[in-house]
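Late entry, heme C complex.
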Amino acid sequence: MKRNYNLIAILITSVLVMSSCEGPMGPIGEEGEKGDQGEPGTTLACADCHNSNSQMTAFSAQWEESTHATGGNAAYANREGCVQCHTSQGFLEYVAEGSVADISVPQNPMQINCFTCHNIHETFSSDDWALTKPGAETLEVRYAGADVVWNKGTSNQCVFCHQSRNVSPAPSVNGADFEIANNRMGPHHGPNANLILGKTPFELPGAQVPANNPHSTASGCVTCHMSAPYGYQAGGHNMAMKYDSHGTETRLLTGCTSCHDIGSSPYTAFNNKISEFQSEIKEKLEDLEAQLVAAGIYNTTTELANKGTFKANAVLAYLNYNTIKEDRSNGIHNPEYTRVLLDNSIAAMTAIGYPAPEE
Ligand code: HEC
Ligand code: HEC
Ligand code: HEC
Ligand code: HEC
Ligand code: HEC
Ligand code: HEC
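Prediction complete; structure with ligand written out below:
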């Protein structure tokens, strides 16, 4: 979808002319009535944003190719319990009402767009770039009996949507056998915030989870996902971490340079470090998956849990598996924590009688 910015510019110019008190000079005639004085504090500064500076054009183009714009699930998940994260209208209604109790299902669902995250066209000044959800976010899922708060700059905008959903009822460590009654049991697709903070509720005994995560940065998600973009394909307002470079899938590394010495293009040593780490995580995840299949909990065809009654720790191991899989960063969001969750889950399955497969 390409927008005609010339047309917009003309429209803006005419609005400016019509609404400002000083129109273009004409021949001197009778003095007309004085125009209404604008309300104090409000300006009609369309050109603050619609101007020849490339920002709006570039950001819009990045966004247009993003999963936020193209993912398609605004239509699929346009229903109660889903609209608040999957449609622009649902999210803004949640922000206005402060609750998800009574959100209407819009007739013309919109994907996540500029108006979802910014207060566009409210005061018609550059103040409207302000974010719609700027404050700290108390996550839905508690940890060790306490609230978990995300407060990381502009990425506060992201985490209402990109957090675990509550799993209730859930088993407790070494607890009674647990019945999986719903095969979609799990934290849903975006448990990113909980994992980055290292506060997911399904930890099993074993190695100690680390207290800190080097990737839990002060600006959170935007450090990496909104770092200097690659064209319209990644970073910036596209927010993806990979792009296509002449047919080769390539990682966006612009967000890593503030901490890692990534060397120079093609960044071989740093890319190898990432690949080695992710292979380690993927192998552990595959081992755990094989154990869960052997125990009859996980079905690789449906990619869902099987209904039935299982050992509490096996169900917790499944929830760890599901969290790490749905996070989709292959461990990058919290490297050491992800390792420990997987190691302890593999050990728990072994203890129950489902040893990890031999290499
Ligand atoms: C805070 C920045 C900002 C200001 C100030 C602003 N706009 Fe916009 N405007 C936007 C954004 C962002 C969009 C959506 C662009 C997109 O979707 O790619 C937009 C879209 C539009 C569109 C296209 C239709 C639409 O709603 O998507 C028109 C027309 C428009 N603006 C006119 C104006 C006029 C006239 C003014 C001044 C009275 C104004 N804008 C002030 C940011 C701004
Ligand atoms: C209103 C809820 C909402 C907000 C706010 C939001 N997201 Fe998303 N995000 C989603 C949804 C829903 C999808 C999947 C879209 C689809 O499939 O239609 C998604 C997709 C993504 C993806 C792409 C995943 C892929 O598979 O390509 C990334 C990366 C992402 N979001 C990062 C962010 C970041 C960073 C922020 C904050 C700057 C943010 N999101 C804010 C709901 C949100
Ligand atoms: C708390 C916010 C939230 C709620 C509520 C929510 N989703 Fe999502 N959903 C997301 C996010 C964020 C993503 C994108 C995750 C990613 O791409 O990694 C997503 C992704 C998806 C996907 C794409 C998965 C894929 O593998 O491509 C589907 C389908 C989906 N959601 C359906 C639903 C349905 C149906 C509901 C209601 C029953 C729902 N969602 C409720 C946040 C939410
Ligand atoms: C998913 C949420 C999200 C969406 C959608 C989104 N933005 Fe943003 N935008 C952000 C965040 C977060 C920042 C701050 C980034 C940072 O701190 O580096 C930002 C920053 C900006 C800025 C810089 C603001 C300033 O104060 O200087 C502009 C301009 C902007 N966005 C324009 C747009 C336009 C145009 C669109 C639609 C095409 C859009 N944004 C869509 C989240 C979003
Ligand atoms: C330290 C950098 C970093 C931070 C901080 C970060 N991410 Fe990521 N994220 C990544 C990388 C790298 C990947 C891709 C891993 C891969 O594909 O192998 C990724 C993957 C994802 C994905 C899966 C889809 C995709 O684009 O591959 C989503 C969704 C996502 N991140 C959302 C978030 C959200 C939301 C936050 C904040 C709550 C966040 N991330 C914070 C680096 C980061
Ligand atoms: C705020 C600083 C910071 C940022 C930004 C950052 N990292 Fe890191 N990262 C660290 C530190 C510190 C470590 C631990 C020491 C080490 O292994 O280098 C680390 C470790 C790693 C590891 C090794 C994990 C392990 O345990 O084996 C990988 C892989 C990695 N980072 C990838 C990335 C990628 C990819 C990005 C950008 C998308 C990124 N990092 C951004 C600070 C950062």
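The pocket of heme C (ligand 3) is lined by residues 73, 76-77, 81-82, 84-86, 161-162, 165, 188-190, 328 (CB under 6 Å). Will revisit in the morning.
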